[in-house]
Amino acid sequence: MENGNSQERRNVIRVGTRKSQLARIQTDSVVEMLTNKFPEAHFEIVAMSTTGDKILDTALSKIGEKSLFTKELENALERNEVDLVVHSLKDLPTSLPPGFTIGAVCKRESPYDAVVFHPKNAEKSLESLPTNSTIGTSSLRRAAQLKKHFPHLQFKDIRGNLNTRLKKLDEHDDFSAIILAAAGLRRMGWENRIDQVLSPEQCLYAVGQVCICSVCLSGYPPPRGLLYPK
């Protein structure tokens, strides 16, 4: 006969996530939704750093790794250290490794990109910035599109989580502005930092941008039953 402690351990669902503040906020929102639907389950968040979090001095496009923000979490799933993982959908590789599946995708928020200006440029727009002003972004997609629409600007790679990139913008003069996902700023409670929202004609957002998803092992009943119960 099982005692209460063993029964409680059996009901613990370990949720893997990146360590960044935004990743934790997104994971907390998923856990809150699951807790509301399955109050008998206990959720334990397991946070870890990924390759993309550790290598900050090289552009993402030059690192040469397909699963920059997912590999360590995938390994944890394989080793049964976590039961499911919460990701930003745009961080997933085009094809998941064999044995993995997307368990659920949360309702998508506004996917548009936003411009955050250096305090000295607070009243400006991308159109009105002086020629050769430097715009920070870690995305080739954003840089390529914005170069076409704003040829008077130059674009430079900027790495780090949202906190780090905003600090680099505010405390130094390397960048006149940076480009970030508007929804990420809102989730962090920093909507007041959004100075300009880019239209899809100016900068079409990434596939899966701002979508939060969960990944689990195919055929592993506990998380699959939670994420899409019969």
TrEMBL record:
Query: What Pfam families does the entry give?
Result: Porphobil_deam (PF01379)
Which family is annotated? Belongs to the HMBS family.
Q: Which residues form the Porphobilinogen deaminase N-terminal domain?
A: 13-216
Q: Does the keyword Transferase apply?
A: yes
* Protein name in the entry: hydroxymethylbilane synthase
| Annotated keywords | Porphyrin biosynthesis, Transferase
> What is a GO molecular function of this protein?
hydroxymethylbilane synthase activity
E.C. no: 2.5.1.61
Which cofactors is this protein said to need?
A: dipyrromethane
For this protein, the parts annotated as crossing the membrane are: none
Q: Which residues form a coiled coil?
A: none
Q: Extract the InterPro entries matched here.
A: HemC (IPR000860), Porphobilin_deaminase_N (IPR022417)
Q: Does the keyword Transferase apply?
A: yes
One Gene Ontology term from the biological process aspect of the record: heme biosynthetic process
Q: Which GO terms describe its cellular component?
A: cytoplasm
